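User: Some background: our group keeps a shared notebook of sequences we're curious about, and every so often someone picks one and asks for a predicted structure to add to the entry. Today it's my turn. The entry only has the sequence so far, pasted here. Could you supply the structure so I can complete it?
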Amino acid sequence: MVKSVMIVGVGGQGSLLASKLLGRLLTEEKYDVKVSEVHGMSQRGGSVVTYVKFGEKVYSPIVDLGEADYIVSFEKLEAARYAPYLKKGGRIIVNTQQIDPMPVITGAAQYPSDVLERLAAEGIEVDAVDALALAEKAGSAKTVNIVLMGRLARCFSIPPEKWLAAIEATVAPKFVEWNRSAFRLGYEA
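Assistant: Of course. Here's the predicted structure to add to the notebook entry:
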């Protein structure tokens, strides 16, 4: 059976590192893994999407509407934007951080105050976590991505030690301890 994970965020949040970590972990677990990156205006704070599909045999990395088992969202509006890709019974893991898009910054639009409530009202299982606060507790705001991977790890039967080993193999050595701490905080939150 093939499973699909979408990692969505805003450029610069580390979604590509998160997908690399997940791909490495799943490959080490002997799954066939396909990863695909879709960059919007990522260099300018625009939307970034990464697809990770894994199973016995995977033919394409692309996740279609209603196909994602999990969506890991680095920001609330991104969770709402990609919610139609979630399959019935799927789960959205979302950072409660708000990053204002350009229309909000310029005053042309307002950031909706009830994004997560609307998703829950649609029957979507929403696992909301203040990943930024946990990342800062771990030692660096830049570890939000790994906090969210810690939350995702709770949905898998792969032991945390294997996730931590994949972190050590994926991030630069000088950042390993922050990332290990971020993973644990996300997993335990």
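Suggested note for the entry: The longest strand covers residues 86-95. Helices lie at 15-28, 76-82, 102-105, 115-121, 131-138, 144-153, 160-170, 176-188.
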